Amino acid sequence: MLHLEVSGVIPLACQRCLAAIPFDLDVDCQLELVPAGVELSQDELEDDTRDFLPVERELDVVEVVEDEILLALPVAPRHEKCGLPGAADAGERINPFAQLSALKGKPN
């Protein structure tokens, strides 16, 4: 078994306004090391309380820590109350098809 704990604050870019957003990282997982190529039963694979890590020869701990951190990050980080850039001062929305309605019914 491998018990992994990682915590800290990672600055991410908000996907709406592109400003920095601090993300509180808190990874606490227990990985069960199994030899590579070992067949696991369907019940073991479906058990959400267990995480398996296949190991061939030597375990690259840095790679395991990096993978667990990447799995903990949000797919699209954003502020809770964040609008699109320029949306606040956009003013009245213009319908691009408004001019077409004026042409409706006119002969060519």
Describe the 3D structure.
With 108 residues, the protein is an alpha+beta fold. The protein contains 3 helices and 3 strands, in the order ββαβαα. A hairpin with a 6-residue loop joins strand 1 and strand 2. The longest helix has 12 residues, at 61-72.
Overview features:
108 residues; alpha+beta; three-stranded mixed β-sheet; 3 helices
Number of domains: 1
What structural class do you assign from the helix and strand content?
alpha+beta
What is the overall number of helices? 3
| Sheet with the most strands, sense and barrel status | 3 strands, mixed
From the N-terminal CA to the C-terminal CA, the straight-line distance is 78 Å
Number of strands: 3
Strand line-up of the largest beta sheet: 1-2-3
Oligomeric assembly:
single chain
How large, in whole angstroms, is the Cα Rg?
25 Å
| Helix-residue proportion | 10-25%
Strand content: 25-35%
- Overall shape: it is elongated
Would you identify the regions where 5 or more consecutive residues have pLDDT less than 50? Answer: none
In brief:
This protein has helices at about 40-45, 60-70, 100-105, and strands spanning about 1-15, 20-35, 50-55. With about 110 residues, the chain is α+β, with helices and mostly antiparallel strands. The protein has a three-stranded mixed β-sheet, covered by helices on one side.
Topology readout:
Layout: E1 2-13, E2 20-35, H1 42-46, E3 51-55, H2 61-72, H3 98-103
